[in-house]
UniProtKB/TrEMBL annotation:
PANTHER family: BLL2464 PROTEIN, SLR2013 PROTEIN. The keyword Cell inner membrane does not apply. InterPro entries: DUF58 (IPR002881). Residues 204-347 form the DUF58 domain. The keyword Glycoprotein does not apply. This is DUF58 domain-containing protein. It holds the Pfam family DUF58. Keywords: Membrane, Transmembrane, Transmembrane helix. It comes from the Bacteria.
Length: 443
């Protein structure tokens, strides 16, 4: 049974059969072709048995191995490597079919190549998951055939490999590297002009053109007989909380990814940058109840705790209770903190219902409300209107777009910081706002 399960007929074999069938049919009018057709049939049968002998005399004709990372990164292109080697004494033609996880809904994966004796090759492809969770890779199927291409022998390797899909680790590492190398401006992160300075002293240095004359240290100047100034730095160890709304408004998808997952990816990347800037980071997720609360801590190992909590967050199909969030923040977050609230409002009436709670949090903390532009509406607005129905659709879209800007102004009117962003630009804009708040000394 094992032999029969591994034996497959090559497509070329059916072409040979078609030629033989044509010979038998023509022999009805050309009788001399009839014995030739039978000879060819016996030859094909002999080659069939010989091909079986070639492929099955070596018990270990092929070896293949799928190399998976320990974790896949959500919304990113993750490389998967397959290494295979042939031990057949002849050139082998390979057809490789990897059974991808059902979440990808891809059933036409195939890679073809050829291998000489003892030759080793690598094949790399990428997958882009758009959901967190467990992804199970099925069988790694390798079909080998000889130059005759009459039959194929199936080899099966690495059954049911599970790999978890976590929030975007690749994106986090990208911003981590840029923060260390001070190349944040390459991806749109901008330096904010400092207005005044914070009160955390760093060092005394010589005066250079452009230094604030208000920071001149007169005692040091008298000792050194040259102008010396105090240099200050951004305050460190400040508590920062990422608050994620897991209600139904965050279920909306853009480019295959839910708003919730955009917020989760941004939270992970931002938390990593804030920890590298020596601030304390924590997180809260809420809907009808407080689902997750991680107190703000200043340890790099704390990022693993945040990562595991983000991995298990799910979207609820109910309206979120901002009153409960306000009470929880008032009770648990006792020090003045930077609160980054990831949510979404589609109507200004929805914002006004939650405005008293937002104002309550903004009295003691620096609150930044982050909500999203509807990029599909923006595309509709920018398109040309060619008929009455399109004009109607554009008018409604412009109304919704205007409401977003009115909500932003309404929040700013009450002293609440805002970010109105496209989903794909969320991480950049969040880190920009963080750098701005730190530079302006608002926290």
């Amino acid at each position: 049974m094992q032999f029969l399960k591994s034996l497959y007929i090559h497509n070329t074999f059916f072409r040979y059969i078609a030629v033989l069938a044509g010979c038998f049919m023509l022999s009805f009018w050309i009788p001399i072709l009839y014995p030739i057709a039978w000879i060819l049939t016996l030859v094909l049968l002999g080659l069939f048995l010989f091909d079986i002998y070639l492929l099955y005399t070596h018990s270990k004709g092929l070896v293949a191995n799928r190399v998976l990372p320990k974790k896949l990164s959500n919304s990113d292109l993750n490389p998967i490597t397959i290494v295979f080697e042939s031990f057949y004494p002849f050139k082998t033609y390979i057809s490789l079919i990897d059974e991808l996880p059902q979440q990808f809904q891809k059933r036409d994966f195939e890679h073809r190549t050829s291998l000489f004796r003892n030759e080793k090759k690598e094949f790399e492809y990428t997958v882009r998951p758009v959901e967190r969770g467990e992804y199970v890779f099925g069988n790694l199927n390798v079909y080998a055939s000889s130059a005759l291409r009459i039959i194929k022998r199936r080899f099966v390797f690495q059954k049911d490999q599970m790999v978890p899909v976590y929030p975007s680790i690749i994106q986090m590492q990208q911003y981590d590297f840029l923060a260390i190398s001070n190349n944040l401006t390459q991806v749109g992160l901008k330096k904010i002009r400092r207005i005044g300075h914070t009160q955390e002293f760093e060092q005394i240095k010589e005066y250079v053109a452009g230094d604030d004359i208000r920071t001149v240290n007169w005692k040091a100047t008298a000792k050194q007989n040259q102008l010396m100034v105090n240099q200050y730095q951004d305050e460190k160890s400040q508590p920062i909380y990422s608050i994620i709304d897991t209600g139904r408004v965050m279920k909306m998808p853009f480019n295959g990814l839910k708003l919730l997952d955009y917020a989760i990816n941004a939270t992970l990347a931002f938390s990593n940058v804030a920890l590298k800037k020596n601030d304390k980071t924590g997180m809260v997720s809420f809907s009808k109840k407080i689902e997750t609360f991680v107190p703000a801590v200043q340890k790099l190992t704390h990022l693993n705790t945040i990562l595991e909590k983000l991995y298990n967050i799910t979207t609820e199909y109910t309206d979120s209770d901002f009153g409960l969030l306000y009470a929880h923040v008032k009770r648990k977050v006792t020090h003045r903190s930077l609160l980054l609230l990831y949510t979404n409002f589609e109507h200004i009436s929805a914002l006004k219902r939650q405005l008293p709670y937002l104002m309550g949090m903004a009295k003691k903390h620096v609150l930044v409300v982050i909500f999203f532009e509807n990029t599909e509406l923006e595309e509709l607005i920018s398109a040309d209107a060619e008929d009455l129905q399109t004009i109607y659709h554009k008018t409604i879209a412009e109304k919704f777009s205007l409401e977003k800007r009115l909500m932003q102004k309404e929040l700013q009117r009450y002293g609440i910081q805002t970010i109105l962003t496209k989903p794909e630009e969320l991480t950049i804009n969040t880190i920009n706002k963080y750098l701005e708040i730190k530079s302006r000394g608002l926290l």
